[in-house]
Task: structure prediction
Amino acid sequence: MKKIKDERIIMGKRKIQSQAFGLSFIGLWLILLYRQFILNQPISEYLDIFLLTIGISFYVTLNNVIAGFYVTYRDKQTKTKITIISGLVSALTFSIIQFTISNKILSNTKDLISTIAGSIIFFLIWIFLQSKLLSLSEKQSNKDID
Amino acid sequence: MLYFICGGEILKNTKLKSARVSLDLTQEQLADKVGVTRQTIGLIEAGKYNPTLNLCIDICKALNKTLDDIFWEED
Result:
């Protein structure tokens, strides 16, 4: 008699664990947003959760890149489009957060220019990192293919 | 994975069942031979679980059949 190693059960358990992880991860981000924007707590009060959330995000992203799973689109056009759209959305989110945290005023020219400059720098860094991650992931996904 | 879903309809794997029965094996005995639970064999026969290729091969070996014999659909 073989030792029972049922793939259906193993896969089912992994799926449940993965869903539980996904829920916890969303929960962590919600806690962070709540503490930052509703309770207005300083970062020192939730540094542990902040580091954990950022650490997990890095872990997930890096492992996806290393495994070659980081969005490997076939055509270059789609890849560029996705990178630019995600960059724009992220830069916009970054600017809104910057505005909220620093209590900047839109009519103040200095505030406006610094926010726009910050957004552009953020966008460029985002595009650079995204392209690097995508090309590294692509390279990794092709590594075992002759 | 091999699929037994045709046009949204779940197809029972009768070939697996008849091959098992012809060897006078119960679902439990086949499951023991393959190293899975009885429920997994039952679900494959009922067409409600799509086994991986490795499991298909293990089942075929246990039943002395080929993949075509058990898992290939005829038109």
Summary: Chain B touches chain A through 15 residues (CB under 8 Å). The mean pLDDT of chain B is 87. The two ends of chain B are 20 Å apart (CA to CA). The longest strand of chain B covers residues 5-6.
